[in-house]
Amino acid sequence: MDLSALLAVGQTALELGLICSLTVLALFLSYSMLNVCDLSTDGCFTLGAAVGAMVAVSGHPLLSIPAAMLAGVCSGFITALLQTKMGIDSLLAGIIVNTGLYSVNIAVMSGSSLVNLNKTDTVFTMAKDLLAGTPLESQYRTVVAALAVALTVAVLTLFLNTRLGLAIRATGNNPDMVRSSSINPVFTTIVGLCVANAFTGLSGCLMAQAQKSAEINIGSGMVTIALASLLIGTTLMGRGSIFTRAVGMVLGAFLFRLVYAAALRMNMPAFMLKLVSSIIVALAIALPYLKQQWPMIRRRLFYRSAFAGKGGN
After folding, report:
1. Closest alpha carbon to 248 in 149, 174, 182
2. Is the per-residue pLDDT at 183 higher than 90?
3. How confident is the model at residue 132 (pLDDT cuts 50, 70, 90)?
4. Strand ranges (DSSP E) for 34-185?
5. 113 in helix, strand or coil?
6. Are 103 and 208 in contact (CB under 8 A)?
7. Mean pLDDT lowest among 38-52, 178-192, 276-290
8. Which residues in 85-98 are b (16+ Cβ under 10 Å) and which e?
């Protein structure tokens, strides 16, 4: 693989990694902070893509961003409502919402499974026109994605350090203590999931507009990708401040996409990419455990080699 191919792989990984990192930040809020495993991510991502695409097609590319985020808020609200008011387990609630969103997404796209944005103005085409004649003209997708990620990281960091954000973090750590402190864990759970799914909707909207199309399976496997990126980011940045951990989520998304892009460049069959994702997830989950067990494994290998050496003598 020559230098130009490596740069192309890096560029692709950076663009997709930045866009997908918004979903990773959403999972960071719901899974790491709120301790809720939200399996509606795939459907919510597609919902954001569908809403964003339809609003852009109607001639309002800038409005597609808040519209997609609002759609994500609605998805998060329904998921939280099932958990907190109907007593449904968080895993089952996510599965139920994800299943229902398939029909909702088809309805949003006017009964079609694909919305073409090739001839539609999007936030990316607007950025391309704005950056025309500048050194960043060819990097307009990266600029838009980086700006969205920077704003999201800033908002998330500030939000989680507010009184409400601290209550959400406390709810994830110990809901009984939160309840005894006169804080309503139902309210904090609803707010947390609404904010998280707003980020997921934004991610789906940007992905659809970057790829110039929104199709019904655009969010397939997104929860797996986000989980792997989250675990990679957690391994990289450890247990630092909220800002440090949020930056780790972005780095994790980039590294995941870099491996994914490299696999594509090696002419790997498309049906093998799911296996690649599964292997990355397994390694990301196992890495902290293996890192913890490595001193013991190293001692065992040393004693075995020493014993084998004595036996040979």
Report:
1. 149
2. no
3. confident
4. 114-116
5. coil
6. no
7. 276-290
8. eeebebeebbebbb
DSSP-derived letter for residue 162 is: S
Looking at the chain, the number of H-run helices and the number of E-run strands are 12, 2
**H runs (alpha helix) in 36-139:** 41-57, 64-84, 90-108, 123-130
Helix (H, G, I), strand (E, B) or coil at 114: strand
- Sequence-distant (6+) residues with CB within 8 A of 16 are 207, 257, 260, 261
Torsion angle, CA of 202/207/213/214, rounded to 10 degrees? -50
In the block, residue with structure tokens 């397994």: 282
Cα 205 from Cα 56, distance rounded (Å): 10
Q: How far apart are CA 2 and CA 94, in angstroms?
A: 44
Instruction: Report the C-alpha gap between 14 and 30 in whole angstroms.
Output: 24
> What is the tens place of the pLDDT at every residue in 140-170?
899 999 999 999 999 999 999 999 999 999 8
Q: Phi/psi class of residue 37: alpha, beta or left (left: φ > 0; alpha: ψ in -120 to 50)?
A: beta
